[in-house]
């Protein structure tokens, strides 16, 4: 039995295709119960969820900016910007959203641990009006 699993993100469902971006969730394809990884490419001015934010009950998330930027992160009432080569960890329970504030497409790799019981993500409408 092989001790690894590979995937090609472009072979997965793209949840941002209609917006001209890429959002591929790799946990299931990698057969990983412990950690998930998501590949995100955002065009200029776009966010992953429109004006929505989301939070998790038990799951921290880590976002790594691979290229592009700055990417704007709104976490609860604070906003911070990151560029390529930087990362952010967001606490479980913190309401958050992100948007490409740069002049070129942005590439991000995100990861988080799936808590017992499955998906603990909760979307919140209107968190960042105008995004």
Helices and strands, with pairings:
Layout: E1 22-25, H1 27-30, E2 36-42, E3 53-56, E4 61-67, E5 71-75, E6 78-82, E7 87-90, E8 96-100, E9 106-112, E10 121-124
Antiparallel strand pairs: 1-2, 2-9, 3-10, 4-7, 4-9, 5-6, 5-8
Secondary-structure element order, as H and E? EHEEEEEEEEE
Global shape: globular
Please give the largest β-sheet. Answer: 5 strands, antiparallel
The order of strands across the largest sheet is 1-2-9-4-7
Strand content: 35-45%
Secondary-structure content class:
mainly beta
Task: Describe the 3D structure.
The structure is a single chain. This protein has 131 residues and is mainly β. It has one domain: Sandwich (Jelly Rolls). The strands form 3 sheets. A 5-stranded antiparallel β-sheet has the order 1-2-9-4-7. Strands 6-5-8 form a 3-stranded antiparallel β-sheet, with no helix packed on it. Strands 3-10 form a two-stranded antiparallel ribbon. Strand 5 and strand 6 form a beta hairpin. The N and C termini lie far apart (46 Å). 24% of the residues are buried. The mean pLDDT is 93.
Provide keyphrases for this structure.
mainly beta, five-stranded antiparallel beta sheet, Jelly Rolls, three-stranded antiparallel beta sheet, 10 strands, 131 residues
Summarize the structure.
The chain has 131 residues and is mainly β. The protein has 1 helix and 10 strands; from the N terminus they run E-H-E-E-E-E-E-E-E-E-E. The strands form 3 sheets. The chain has a 5-stranded antiparallel sheet with strand order 1-2-9-4-7. The chain has a 3-stranded antiparallel sheet with strand order 6-5-8, with no helix packed on it. Strands 3-10 form a two-stranded antiparallel ribbon.
